[in-house]
Design brief:
With 286 residues, this protein is of the alpha/beta class. It is built from 10 helices and 10 strands. It has 2 domains: 6-148, Rossmann fold, CATH 3.40.50; 159-278, HUPs (Rossmann fold), CATH 3.40.50. The protein has helices at residues 15-27, 44-47, 55-83, 99-109, 132-140, 171-183, 200-212, 228-238, 253-258, 265-269, and strands spanning 6-10, 33-41, 88-96, 114-118, 145-148, 159-164, 187-192, 219-222, 243-248, 274-278.
Length: 286
């Protein structure tokens, strides 16, 4: 796999999203990258049903765009001052658009390799681990997503966990894993979250993983117990995992882990960044 070059960083200027941007700059600090900071907006007047063509609505759009452009330029100035990395090129886009639609078009237009975004902070008893935007990006956009939990301080990924049920394994998944292990010379843990005996295809996938990554010496593990999300969380803590990776397919074990409500504050705050590789119909190899 070629070195990552084009990284998309959606931001709403919240502390959470800026934290994810800073994580991204450190995560790729030794790579030549172009980072696209993206801010989308939909003015309140547009939602209130007023005619979009009238002068005041257009004026509001321009004023909102100008203010956002000023903020994003200031943010980039501050990031350049803080990180001062000649290998990094920071560009910005401000658009009157819905976030997911704009992300989709930018992934195609800019040949985006990875989207990095923050998860939203806690909202009391109803807190959801993934913010709405992050969840929809993972579900709707055909591009890998790296989600950085709110308040997570960057730590070099030395221990990476790939959680899999061995049902899907494509050549791009193997190259993807190899790239990220190599990026930080990390140790890879491969956790089998399938609680039954593996069938022939699953055993073949496990063998392919072992052979393709043999020089990296991955460590294979089995989950203990039937509660997969609980088992993954326990493994993550016991082995000091710095980054979790998964392949996402509709109705897979992955959705049980990531799209469930998280009540326990402690569990919420000990989560680590995770990267999701999407599976789409008729997806071409990258």
């Amino acid at each position: 796999m070629q070195a990552m070059k084009n990284i998309l960083l959606p931001t709403d200027f919240s502390e959470n999203s800026i934290n994810a941007i800073k994580y991204a700059l450190r995560f790729f600090e030794k790579r030549n990258c172009t980072f696209y900071l993206l801010h989308t907006f939909t003015p309140a007047a547009y939602h209130s049903g007023k005619a979009f063509q009238n002068f005041t609505s257009m004026e509001l759009v321009h004023a909102t765009r100008d203010a956002a452009a000023e903020r994003i330029k200031n943010l980039i100035t501050n990031l350049k001052a803080e990180f001062n990395n000649p290998q990094h090129h920071l560009k910005w886009v401000v658009d009157f658009n819905l976030l997911i639609g704009k992300i989709r078009s930018m992934v195609k237009e800019k040949n985006i390799d990875l989207i990095i975004m923050g998860t939203q902070g806690a909202t009391g008893a109803k807190e959801i681990f993934l913010g709405t935007h992050t969840m929809y990006t993972i579900k709707k956009v055909n591009c890998p997503v790296l989600a950085v939990p709110s308040g997570y301080h960057y730590k070099k990924p030395e221990e990476i966990l790939f959680a899999t049920d061995y049902k899907i394994l494509r050549s791009q998944d193997l190259r993807f894993l190899e790239y990220y292990i190599g990026l930080h010379s990390a140790r890879l843990h491969i956790l089998n979250v399938y609680t039954e005996n593996l069938d022939e295809q699953q055993r073949e996938h496990r063998k392919q993983l072992s052979e393709f990554l043999k020089d990296r010496k991955p460590v294979f593990h089995l989950t203990e117990g039937d509660d997969i999300p609980e088992a993954v969380e326990a493994f993550q803590k016991e082995n000091n995992i710095d980054l979790m990776m998964m392949v996402h397919k509709k109705h897979s074990f992955f959705e049980n882990i990531l799209f469930k409500p998280v009540i326990n504050q402690l569990v919420y705050h000990t989560n680590v960044p995770f990267m999701v590789m999407p599976v789409r119909e008729k997806q071409s190899e990258q």
